[in-house]
Amino acid sequence: MLDPRKLLLLRELARRGTIAAVAQAVTFTPSAVSQQLAALEREAGVPLLERTGRTVTLTAAGHLLVEHAQAVLEQLERASAALAATRGGPSGPLRVGAFPTAARVLLPPALAALTGAHPGLRPMVAEIDPADVSAALRAGELDVALVHEYDSVPPVTDASIETEPLFSEPIYLTDRPSVAAARADAWITNKPGTLCHTMAIRACQAAGFEPSVRHHIDDFDTVLAFAAAGQGVALVPHLAAINPPADVPLTRLPLRRRTLAAFRKGYGEHPAVLAAVSAFRTAAARLPL
């Protein structure tokens, strides 16, 4: 019988590429991960890993087992959700991930309604960039998360994660009538590796130039303060620009950011996740969009 816990480690190795990265994600030692994967090979009866020095890659059989592992783990998530539903209403801890704008604007009313309707539920929020959410969900560090995607940035798909759309919002440019008009300006973007940074770079590339990035700032309130001080131009989503500084003109662009709820496949029927997504959707319907 194949151990689902070992299958999870194999799936993470397929996604992360190294034993060390898997160990960090699941808070094991690299030695423990290696031992578990070796035990899985013995259970499977065929080589799953090919080791060359310190490099480990999956064999054809390893890749085949990862495909089946995803289906097995998804069914286990469904079973966990179904069992939770038999225990009554949502209760216990609920680990929620959110990017900063959503944490500030959407979560306070959503969590107030959620805990008011379900006093036994204990939401615990952690700020996280959407680019890191899939790994955190797969590792069990989060139960549900708010993520975003942009028109100009194709979403990163993950077979183990599913999403539900909540709302979309326009994007604004500070101080200039168009992206092309900001060709010669200094730019303020989010840190490299974030979706917001990628969106800004691609918007400039679509206008025919590479931006000269002077500042990397993730907090949009700070971004607007820098723009007000003449330190550069920036792209800012609507929720971050509800109350902009008076001396920062904003131009609405034909770009949008979409916010979604994300959770592990099969786990969406868990009572706590269902209640959270419902609360997110209700709060989103009341946003000043």
From TrEMBL:
GO terms for MF: DNA binding; DNA-binding transcription factor activity
Database matches in Gene3D superfamilies: Periplasmic binding protein-like II, Winged helix-like DNA-binding domain superfamily/Winged helix DNA-binding domain
One Pfam family linked to the record: HTH_1
Domain of life: Bacteria
GO terms for cellular component: protein-DNA complex
UniProt keyword annotations, A-Z: DNA-binding, Transcription, Transcription regulation
CDD domains listed in its UniProt record: PBP2_LTTR_like_6
Record bears the keyword Manganese: no
InterPro entries: LysR_HTH_N, LysR_subst-bd, WH-like_DNA-bd_sf, WH_DNA-bd_sf
PANTHER family in the record: LYSR SUBSTRATE-BINDING, TRANSCRIPTIONAL DUAL REGULATOR HCAR-RELATED
Protein family per UniProt: Belongs to the LysR transcriptional regulatory family.
Name by which UniProt lists this protein: LysR family transcriptional regulator
